[in-house]
């Protein structure tokens, strides 16, 4: 079953991603942000995310090929995945795209602490384009504070005459954004919601107002919501009805759902476990990660 919901400039498609991507016009998308299930056993409201590695990668090749087809020649493609899968995806993508940056989204997690190895506290993101000579990168729209100039007030004596260091800079490839927590206003009932601040940087840097931003795995629809706030157009695909409802509310798209159906009722993503259980939980998670 395919269902489509739209409002001026914004569309949500309720369908399997590969099938929905096949129906999108070739070279029609300015920016793609793809954050698929990572095949690490998450429960996406009834869809269990764990298959053989070869099956998972074979599925990735299908939707990545479609993304390649529908991306404009001057378009940009961001691809997120787990640390375990990313080497495979990097090798596949570097034959098809120009990889501009290998970004690390680093975050703190005091809740999950591995004790027998170094716990995973980052997620990798590939930043890719089709054409090195023609792509959007609005460096001035994403500048951040440069501590050398702004905090320490140092003078650059290599310049003649000496000048203060810049107070802002273009971010490097290590991004420090807090994960979305229960107490944050933007929190939605989704197990892998990405922060609006991360999407804001991606969309400001790699698209212009009016451009079309695609998210093949909408999830909590952070991409669509931020694209709308920043004056871009958006197209989001998601196969799970529970999450479609989140998207309809976040993007303000009319539907037959009642207000109550779409109301935000916050449920914690993680259970509030006792300390003993928390320790057991981290060991199980550690074993699980090692099995991958
Ligand atoms: C990692 S989450 C995306 C999270 C999203 N970036 C956010 O910020 O909320 C992956 C999403 O893909 C959806 N999904 C899984 N398999 C899919 C498929 N075959 N077609 C479309 N969506 C799928 C899941 O339901 C889940 O919501």
UniProtKB/TrEMBL annotation:
Its EC number is 2.1.1.-. GO terms for molecular function: DNA binding; N-methyltransferase activity; site-specific DNA-methyltransferase (adenine-specific) activity. Keywords: Methyltransferase, Plasmid, Transferase. It holds the Pfam family N6_N4_Mtase. It is an enzyme of class 2 (transferase). Gene3D superfamilies: Vaccinia Virus protein VP39. SUPFAM superfamilies: S-adenosyl-L-methionine-dependent methyltransferases. GO terms for biological process: methylation. It catalyses: a 2'-deoxyadenosine in DNA + S-adenosyl-L-methionine = an N(6)-methyl-2'-deoxyadenosine in DNA + S-adenosyl-L-homocysteine + H(+). InterPro entries: DNA_methylase_N4/N6, DNA_methylase_N6_adenine_CS, RM_Methyltransferase, SAM-dependent_MTases_sf. Residues 29-246 form the DNA methylase N-4/N-6 domain. Belongs to the N(4)/N(6)-methyltransferase family. This is Methyltransferase. The lineage of its organism: Bacteria, Pseudomonadati, Pseudomonadota, Alphaproteobacteria, Acetobacterales.
